[in-house]
Design brief:
single chain; three-stranded mixed beta sheet; mainly alpha; 3 strands
Amino acid sequence: MKTQLLSIFFVLLSSLSFGQKFFFVDTDYILENSEEYQAAMDEINASSTRWQETIEAKYKEIEEMTLDFQAEKILLTEDLRLKKQGEIEKKKAEAREYQKKKFGVGGELFKKREEAIKPIQDKIFGEVEKLAKSGNYAVVFDRSASGNILYADNKYDKTEDVMRRLGITKSSEKE
């Protein structure tokens, strides 16, 4: 984080001191107003809703199985009690696995979102880069919540200079 802030500071300092131009865009605002993005989000939300309904149905079934088991537990033999408990635990594990598969890190929701939205973001970044290069802008900032640098002309990258001043050598030079 400190490295990013330091980099931003140096880029801003060099931009201001040499009169370089910069601009910002609000990618959140662009996405909010993009029909393509809204359609992608509608599709993602519909899938998410279907998956959530399936998960809720699985847990409702588990709840019903548990209630039935509690009601008849005293009438069952030890073997039947263990068998029914095992079935309930198996159903719980299946429900958790399904939930993880759909909503977990790297799950289907993540993949679907990446597949649908990344091309739209790439289009935006491509246009930002074209605009920056055509207008000789040094830096482009994203005004949205991310606050990222979307484009920076490499000729203003002073990372190596700062590293030299600090006596830091690149990893490849050490070997």
